[in-house]
Design brief:
Keywords: Membrane, Transmembrane, Transmembrane helix. It comes from Roseibium marinum. It holds the Pfam family DUF6691. This is Sulphur transport domain-containing protein. The protein is mainly α. It starts with a helix and ends with a helix.
C-alpha cells in the first residue's frame, strides 16, 4: 500500500510541477531575473504550496499519528550549521543557474540533454558532499 500511495503522491506532485510551469527552466530563470523579464508566478506557486502544507500539517498532527506509520518522524536538530547553510547556498545557486530544482527536474528528465546534465550534476554534487563528509569523519577519528 505504501509504494502505491508514494507513487500517487509523486504523480500529483509531478503534475503540479508541470501544470504550474516549473518544469520549464526559462520560467524559473525569469523569476530570478528581477531587473529584466521578471515573472512573479513562481512566488504564487510557492505561496500556494506553503498554504497547502500548513493546512496539511495541522490536519496531520490532529490525527495523532500517520496513517501508514506508528509515529511521525520529525527532525530534532534546530541549529544552523555550515552544512545546512552551505547546502542551501549551493542549491539556490544551482537552481538560479539552471532553472531546475531536483523536484522540478524529475518530471522533465526525458525532455532533452539539459535536464539530464542537471541531474548528473546534482548526483555528482551529492556524491562529492558524501565523500567530503566521510573525509572529515576520518580526519576527526584520526585526531582523537
Amino acid at each position: 500500500m505504501k509504494p502505491l500511495l508514494a507513487f500517487a503522491f509523486g504523480l500529483v506532485f509531478g503534475c503540479g510541477i508541470l501544470i504550474s510551469g516549473m518544469g520549464n527552466p526559462a520560467k524559473v530563470l525569469n523569476f530570478f531575473d528581477i531587473a529584466g523579464t521578471w515573472d512573479p508566478s513562481l512566488a504564487f506557486v510557492m505561496g500556494g504550496a506553503l498554504l497547502v502544507t500548513a493546512i496539511g500539517y495541522r490536519l496531520a498532527f490532529r490525527m495523532g499519528r500517520p496513517l501508514l506509520a506508528s509515529s511521525f518522524s520529525l527532525p530534532t536538530k534546530q541549529d544552523l550549521d555550515i552544512r545546512l547553510i552551505g547546502g542551501s547556498a549551493v542549491f539556490g545557486i544551482g537552481w538560479a543557474l539552471t532553472g531546475f530544482c531536483p523536484g522540478g527536474l524529475v518530471p522533465v528528465l526525458g525532455l532533452g540533454t539539459a535536464p539530464l546534465m542537471t541531474g548528473a550534476a546534482i548526483l555528482a554534487g551529492i556524491l562529492a558532499a558524501r565523500w567530503m563528509i566521510q573525509l572529515s569523519y576520518r580526519k576527526t577519528a584520526a585526531e582523537a
